[in-house]
Structure formats: structure tokens, C-alpha cells
Design a protein that fits this description.
single chain, 394 residues, alpha/beta, Aspartate Aminotransferase, domain 1, Aspartate Aminotransferase, domain 2, 7-stranded mixed β-sheet, 4-stranded antiparallel β-sheet, 15 strands, binds pyridoxal-5'-phosphate
Length: 394
């Protein structure tokens, strides 16, 4: 019999967005070697790890260098010290979860893709559009059907459930990448009620939770009554504490989440035990330090720095009369391209006219056409200079 590869890979688009951004930037640079290009498109952080994290990791490295304190394989689901710290963190905003409902991982992206292992084959996933492209691609690779919930200006980029639509998995990303929109507790309650009524499971991506400062917005889906029977939450140290290169995240799966006699928490533990050997001890000690008083103070300073960048961008757009969302409870600013320009048309305009690189909204789904994403993760100096140039150009 001829071996066959997974033909569902034919269903996914080439990873076109960032490759095309890089190609157009490169072409411009080749034609204008003297140009000083500023990147406000990246979703990666730029500030270094907090000193408390570095100190904890250094000390963990020392432990690894001594026979008596060396550690080999750790628990698949993460060390107790870190799970306890995460549990305490949730407690700080009033959410009660048990340590054995928390699974430490090498980041939210892996878990968001891998979680499909515990779902039955051939289901339908409801995904908001525009959104972080990983949800769509992982579902298509797994041969699942994907349907979309439109996030548009009309619904403030926060679609509400439609009882005429059925899906067994629902993806919600809040604060959202790319729109920066974040659900209120009330808005999220509607989704939880819908999921509990229809039997669907919500995969809630809270990777940008720590950017929330407004009261009334959801930090965790487990703030919502009934979420423990219908939701899984994914979170990450990447944007919160600059771990994009260090790699650590966590997934919360309540023990109450069951369908037809199968328990999601147990399935995930079994899945991780089979396919994952845990996150390194050194990294988990670093992550633990994020939750100390000192660590929290330091990472909050970094978050405040990024949020001031977002303010600089927002103020510039206000002066130009350009409509946008996000930036306040999110590192992303999602703007409507002026003069009804298309996303790529606006990309070229900014690159050629201001030497500023952003991300065309069309790359995040059909509803992203005509929009553009700027990020607050650059340096202050670059952000200020980029906005001065954009103001001059427009
Ligand atoms: N979820 C969202 C919405 C993201 O934007 C990102 C990264 O950009 C991730 C998850 C991935 O996070 P991690 O670095 O923990 O894999």
C-alpha cells in the first residue's frame, strides 16, 4: 500500500502574511539601502527578562550543577512550586482553581495546537474572524471543519453567540490578537451560557490577560459562572513576562469538564504524559519568580512601558482622526486604513512614505481587509519616531 501524508495540509494557506511582509520590506531595503525602517508590526517583545526572573534562573542553573540538587525529568504537568504560584495568581483576582487543574507547557501555541488530540475527530470549530491564525490552521490540519463568527466594527469586534450556529469547539481570544478588543464579564457570560446549553467547549486564549487594566473586563474565563463545565484556558508568560524566547505557558482544564463519561483534565494529563516531557526546571523556576512581589512589580513596569507605547500610537491616530480599537487593554492597535485603502495598499504606503512596517489586517481573516495592526512592543524611541513620520505622511 502506498504511504500517504496528511492531505489536510493542502487545505491550509501558505504562511503568507509575515513572509510577504518580510519580502516587501526586503525589496524596499534593497532599493533604498540608506533607509531607516522602523518595525511596528512584530508581535515579539523587546524588553529583557525581569531581574527577579534572571536571578531565579541563575540559582536554578547552580542547582543543576551540583550532584545533590541536580534534577532530571520533571513532572509532565509541571512542578508543584509553579502550579501553586499560578493557582495563587488566579486567587489574586478571585478565581479558585486547583493546582492539578493547571498544566505547565512550553507556551500557549503548542497547547492550542495539541489540545485537539483530546477531541473526537471530524467536528466543527467556530473561530472568530479576524484572529490569531494558529486556530484555523491547526483545525484544518486535523481535518476539522472551520466556521467563522464575524468580528466587525458593528459588534465592536466582539461577536456574541448565535444560537442558530452549532459547533463543538469555540475559540475565543481576549484581549484579541489582532483587534485588541476584550470581552466584558457580561459578554463572556453569554458565550459560557451558550456553550453549556449546546454542549460545546470554549478554548479561551488569555495570552494577553495581563494587559487588562479596565475593571469589568474578563481576566480569565473562570471568572464566569458555569465556565468550569465548558471551558479550557490557555495562558502564556510570553507577553506577560517576556518569555517569547524562554518558552513557558500554562493551560487550565477544570476537573468538572466532562463529556460522555470522559474527563478533559484526565485526557490531557494522559496526552501530555505520552507526548510531552515537561518544561525545563530552570525555566519553571524563572516563571515562578514572575509571581513573587518583586517579579510582579518588575513585569508590571515592563507592561506599563508597552502600554505607554500604545498610548503614543493611539494619540497619533487620534490627531489624524483615524479610527482604531485596542491599545488600552492590549498591546495591539487595530486601525481602519484611511481613505478606504486596502490592508496591503496601506502597508505599501507606510513603508514607502514613512519607512514604517506594520501588519496588514487581511492576513488575519477576511474581516481584516481594510484594517491594519500596529504593536506596542517596540522601543519608545522607535514608536515616537514612527508616529511622527506617519503623522507627517498622512
Ligand atoms: N495566543 C495568541 C493570541 C498569540 O498572539 C500568541 C503569540 O503571538 C500565542 C498565543 C503564542 O504564545 P506562546 O509564545 O506562549 O506560544
Amino acid at each position: 500500500m502506498t504511504m500517504k501524508f496528511n492531505s489536510h495540509f493542502n487545505d491550509i494557506n501558505e504562511s503568507y502574511l509575515f513572509a510577504e511582509v518580510a519580502a516587501r520590506t526586503q525589496t524596499f531595503r534593497a532599493a533604498n539601502p540608506e533607509s531607516d525602517i522602523i518595525k511596528l508590526g512584530i508581535g515579539d517583545v523587546t524588553l529583557p527578562l525581569a531581574p527577579a526572573v534572571i536571578a531565579a534562573m541563575r540559582s536554578a542553573v547552580s542547582e543543576m550543577s551540583e550532584k545533590d540538587t541536580f534534577r532530571g525529568y520533571g513532572p509532565y504537568e509541571g512542578y508543584d512550586f509553579l502550579r501553586e504560584s499560578i493557582r495563587g495568581y488566579y486567587g489574586s483576582f478571585g478565581v479558585k482553581i486547583a493546582a492539578d487543574e493547571i498544566f505547565v507547557s512550553d507556551g500557549a501555541k503548542s497547547d492550542l495546537g495539541n489540545i485537539l488530540d483530546i477531541f473526537s475527530e471530524g467536528g466543527t470549530s467556530l473561530i472568530t474572524d479576524p484572529v490569531y491564525p494558529v486556530y484555523v490552521d491547526t483545525n484544518l490540519m486535523a481535518g476539522r471543519k472551520v466556521i467563522f463568527a464575524d468580528a466587525t466594527e458593528q459588534n465592536d469586534f466582539l461577536p456574541a453567540p448565535d444560537y442558530k450556529v452549532t459547533a463543538d469547539i469555540i475559540y475565543i481570544c481576549s484581549p484579541n490578537n489582532p483587534t485588541g478588543a476584550a470581552y466584558t464579564l457580561k459578554g463572556l457570560q453569554e458565550w459560557v451560557d451558550y456553550a453549556n446549553k449546546t454542549g460545546a467547549v470554549i478554548l479561551y486564549d488569555a495570552a494577553y490577560e495581563s494587559f487588562i487594566s479596565d475593571g469589568g473586563l474578563a481576566r480569565s474565563i473562570f471568572q464566569i459562572e458555569g465556565a468550569e463545565t465548558c471551558a479550557i484556558e490557555f495562558c502564556s508568560f510570553s507577553k506577560t513576562a517576556g518569555f517569547t524566547g524562554t518558552r513557558c505557558g500554562y493551560t487550565v482544564i477544570p476537573k468538572a469538564l466532562e463529556r460522555e463519561g470522559l474527563n478533559a483534565n484526565k485526557l490531557w494529563l494522559r496526552r501530555q504524559a505520552t507526548k510531552f516531557n515537561g518544561v525545563s526546571y530552570v525555566v519553571q523556576r524563572g516563571a515562578e519568580a514572575v509571581f513573587t512581589a518583586e517579579g510582579q512589580k518588575q513585569i508590571r513596569e515592563n507592561l506599563a512601558y508597552y502600554k505607554r507605547n500604545a498610548r503614543v500610537i493611539a494619540d497619533g491616530l487620534d490627531e489624524l482622526g483615524i479610527k482604531y480599537t485596542g491599545g488600552k487593554n492590549s498591546p495591539y492597535i487595530w486601525l481602519r486604513c484611511p481613505d478606504n485603502a486596502g490592508s496591503w495598499q496601506f502597508f505599501d504606503l507606510l513603508l514607502n512614505g514613512a519607512q514604517v512596517v506594520g501588519t496588514p489586517g487581511a492576513g488575519f481573516g477576511k474581516n481584516g481587509e481594510g484594517y491594519f495592526r500596529l504593536t506596542a512592543f517596540g522601543s519608545r524611541e522607535d514608536t515616537v519616531r514612527a508616529m511622527q513620520r506617519i503623522k507627517k505622511l498622512l
